[in-house]
Design goal:
The chain is mainly alpha-helical. The two termini are 34 Å apart. The relative contact order is 0.13.
């Protein structure tokens, strides 16, 4: 296990060096993600302001809690954009073109290399913008924040970042089974767009089943905020860990079985 970690760390360092070299050669590739993601970031804030300017509470959360929620979801999205999104999103194209063959012949996990070979430093400023929103939301909400609640929030951010990654990989692993997975991308976009505007506590009935279990985008930013403002209990924490472990196993199983079914496009 330790040897695998050391090996992956060395591979990651090599990929980072190559990535930064390529970005310095093509400088537009470095700045473009920041401008594109920054524009989307601004649109999200404007949409939030328009929707909630005349709303006092949403599911019992006031304006401050909702700002914390928007900042949390934006932070998860920014981490995704920085670390693995631009690698994972190309999985269907590499399956379709047969480029996946090259990854299968290398002495490193193909999913690891696919995930982190296109790290985007241009998206890093979005992380700091998200933290700024969180700081503002904390001032507005004025929850009883202590070192323990901040540590709990950081823990849940890390856990939900794993779930975010698992969902991205899982939906794109469908390309190993189907000729076209465009519908999966549309499903992801719809789920994220909805849950960026509404916290999980606003869902009831069948919608809660969908966004708390089947497509758990509803818990990704909700649980960290609940841990920060003191609404997290043991049962909710256990459920969050259960969902992450469930999707970890499901993602690994779908990916590994898909690789066994994979036939090169060039064969």
């Amino acid at each position: 296990m330790r040897s695998r970690i050391r090996k992956n760390r060395k591979v990651l360092q090599a990929m980072l060096a190559l990535r930064f070299h390529g970005l310095t050669v093509f400088r537009l590739d470095f700045f473009a993600p920041f401008f594109i993601d920054g524009s989307l970031f601004a649109i999200q804030l404007l949409a939030f302001s328009a929707v909630y300017s005349n709303v006092d509470t949403v599911g019992g959360w006031g304006r401050g809690e909702m700002i914390l929620y928007i900042g949390t979801f934006s932070l998860l999205n920014a981490v995704s954009m920085t670390l693995y999104f631009f690698g994972v999103c190309r999985i269907p194209d590499k399956v379709k073109s047969g480029e996946l063959d090259l990854y299968l012949t290398k002495p490193v996990s193909p999913l690891f290399r696919l995930s982190f070979e296109n790290i985007s430093p241009g998206s890093v400023p979005l992380i700091f913008l998200s933290i700024a929103i969180l700081a503002y939301g904390g001032r507005v909400a004025q929850p009883e924040i202590c070192g323990r609640s901040v540590a709990a929030y950081c823990f849940w951010i890390a856990v939900m970042a794993v779930l975010y990654y698992e969902m991205e990989v899982l939906l794109r692993s469908v390309s190993l089974y189907l000729v076209s997975s465009a519908r999966m991308d549309q499903l992801e976009e719809a789920g994220i767009a909805l849950c960026m505007k509404l916290p999980g506590i606003a869902f009831y009935g069948v919608y809660k089943v969908i966004f708390y279990l089947l497509l758990p985008y509803g818990i990704m930013a909700t649980l960290p905020v609940q841990s920060l403002i003191g609404e997290m209990d043991g049962r909710l924490a256990a459920y969050g860990i259960f969902v992450v472990l469930l999707f970890s196993g499901l993602t690994a199983a779908v990916w590994k079985r898909g690789l066994r079914r994979y036939n090169s496009a060039s064969s």
